[in-house]
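An instance follows:
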Amino acid sequence: MNTRIFATAAIMLFATGCTTTTTARRQFDDIDLPSGLAYRPGDSIVIESPTVKAAQLVYRGRLEPITLGDAMRARLESSGWRQVSRTSTANDGVRQVYEKDGSALDVHIYEGLWYTYLALSASQVLPPAPVQTGSDTPPAELSTGVEEPKAASPAKTSANLEPGMVPETQTAPPKSDPSFTQRVKDFFTNLFTW
């Protein structure tokens, strides 16, 4: 009787560990994963907003890290991802960084005691929501939170100007603001840095 219970428990544990997935959850359909990896929801995090979707998805399996790294590169490049960099260290494993259409992806492959882990840190800029038209449409600064630039007022003519003088126009200094994609990349770099 005890042998039968033990065998049933062992089969259930083995079947749970062999769960396969073909895509990196439903959030990122263009990230194809090799079979033999089990999703770890307790180690993963997903953040979604109207403009950005980001996640760190963790998987584990009994695959060789080098083989898993080569398989991920082949699958991602066939899906249109472009590899930006690749690093490999004895203590931290392999990191591959990809980009595609304003999206960023960090693939981290490392070994644990029993399993090989795959951590995907992905961010995707979502297209803007459709703009509402009609008389009930709020001003753009209320709907987007960004104030539109105001038209420059025409130069004032003054009776104090001497002949041949040109009135001065005021210009605002240019803003030095990093791109939205760069800010998202910096955010996730800082968020997922252990």
About this structure: Residues 5-23 have pLDDT under 50 and may be disordered. Strands lie at 23-24, 28-32, 37-39, 45-48, 52-61, 82-89, 93-100, 103-111, 116-125. The chain is about 25% helix and 30% strand. The first strand starts at residue 23 and ends at 24.
